[in-house]
């Protein structure tokens, strides 16, 4: 078989590689604590599960519109009005199987040889992977510890060229837990008025997970860029629905037809019953969401405190999502060495910072989507190893 050269440019998501290795060790009888995988350790709320079951029993077994059933797109628009105070045309909402299709479609829409696409580094690894696959040049937006792992508008704007086609931003962020302050977003939006050829994709999948009284700032709240903004969100993190594969994006008017065609060519439509579960999630009680985020907040305080007590490690406050991103340079280990030794010798799965880009060297990602008891035990094991 002769494969296309473009396949060699596709990367991967190392958290799944670590998960597989942790699974192998567990199968051998090892006691493994997984602080690597980025998914809530909570069950999908019962009323959402029941809505999915009811949809199946009611006969929703067939194809749906490629962009999602109208009732779900209307529920998304109503939710965005409640949470962000913005008016969204349901016709601009496109429902897809998870968050990654939006990333893939956005990059394919703007990426080609000769084009440049900016992305956060360290950041979700699929950004850089898909940019390279498209043939475009990936241009990293360096996220530094000294800035709370938030981008600065000045640095982003300084890297724009006439070849820049798309800027990807992510706040709250994976893997750092960083949240970009409103003043920086204000400056970025103002500066982009001088660059009308540049589109944006704002990954807001963790928009319900902020701590310390912080409020989410959605790029949808800036009408001056709505005609070139793609806003990504979904159900996976907020409603503990990672395995349901349900996400959406709000697309600018000029891109809706293009992305709908991509959906038709790629996956036809999203699982019908899952979409009815998505409606129940948005329109039903939010108690389970609030309880989950409150529990994450408690764990965040524990893991940050305990990481800072480890020799050779310091950890900035995690502002959002459910990740801590400690600096491990003081241990004398590289990120990959620390990842491998913590797993093989201490039985604790983490993810090397370099899995999220070159700017992640010297860091590890810890997911606190695990019980406080397990977090304390995991850090006790790491303390012993160090």
UniProtKB/TrEMBL annotation:
Domain Aminotransferase class I/classII large: 31-382
Classification via InterPro entries: Aminotransferase_I/II_large, AspAT/PAT-like, PyrdxlP-dep_Trfase, PyrdxlP-dep_Trfase_major, PyrdxlP-dep_Trfase_small
Keywords: Aminotransferase, Pyridoxal phosphate, Transferase
Top EC class, one word: transferase
Catalytic activity field: L-aspartate + 2-oxoglutarate = oxaloacetate + L-glutamate
Signal sequence, renumbered to the chain: none
UniProt EC number: 2.6.1.1
Family membership: Belongs to the class-I pyridoxal-phosphate-dependent aminotransferase family.
PANTHER family associated with the record: ASPARTATE AMINOTRANSFERASE
Name of protein: aspartate transaminase
Record lineage: Bacteria, Pseudomonadati, Pseudomonadota, Alphaproteobacteria, Rhodobacterales
């Amino acid at each position: 078989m002769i494969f296309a050269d473009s396949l060699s440019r596709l990367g991967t998501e190392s958290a799944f590689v670590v998960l597989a290795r942790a699974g192998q060790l567990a199968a051998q009888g090892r006691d493994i604590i997984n602080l690597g995988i980025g998914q809530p350790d909570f069950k999908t709320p019962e009323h959402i599960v029941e809505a999915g079951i009811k949809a199946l029993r009611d006969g929703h077994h067939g194809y749906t519109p490629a962009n999602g059933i109208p009732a779900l797109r209307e529920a998304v628009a109503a939710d965005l009005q409640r949470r962000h105070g913005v008016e969204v045309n349901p016709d601009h909402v496109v429902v897809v199987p998870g968050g990654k299709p939006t990333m893939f479609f956005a990059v394919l829409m703007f990426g080609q040889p000769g084009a440049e696409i900016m992305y956060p580094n360290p950041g979700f690894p699929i950004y850089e992977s898909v940019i390279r696959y498209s043939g475009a040049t990936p241009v990293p937006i360096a996220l530094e510890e000294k800035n709370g792992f938030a981008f600065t508008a000045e640095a982003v704007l300084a890297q724009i060229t006439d070849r820049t086609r798309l800027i990807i931003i992510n706040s709250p962020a994976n893997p750092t837990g960083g949240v970009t302050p409103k003043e920086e977003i204000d400056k970025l939006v103002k500066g982009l008025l001088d660059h009308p050829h540049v589109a944006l994709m704002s990954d807001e999948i963790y928009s319900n997970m902020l701590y310390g009284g912080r409020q989410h700032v959605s790029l949808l709240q800036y009408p001056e860029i709505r005609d070139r903004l793609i806003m990504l969100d979904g159900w996976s993190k907020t409603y503990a629905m990672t395995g349901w594969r349900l996400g959406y994006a709000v697309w600018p008017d000029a891109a809706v037809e293009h992305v709908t065609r991509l959906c038709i060519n790629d996956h036809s439509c999203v699982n019908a019953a899952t979409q009815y579960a998505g409606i129940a999630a948005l329109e039903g009680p939010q108690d389970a969401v609030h309880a989950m985020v409150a529990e994450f907040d408690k764990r965040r305080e524990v893991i940050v405190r305990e990481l800072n007590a480890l020799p050779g490690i310091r950890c900035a406050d995690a502002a959002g999502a459910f990740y801590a991103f400690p600096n491990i340079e003081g241990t004398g280990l590289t990120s990959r060495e620390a990842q491998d030794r913590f797993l093989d010798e201490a039985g604790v799965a983490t993810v090397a910072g370099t899995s999220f880009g070159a700017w992640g060297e010297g860091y590890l990602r810890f997911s606190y989507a695990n019980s406080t008891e397990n977090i304390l035990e995991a850090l006790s094991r790491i303390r012993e190893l160090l």
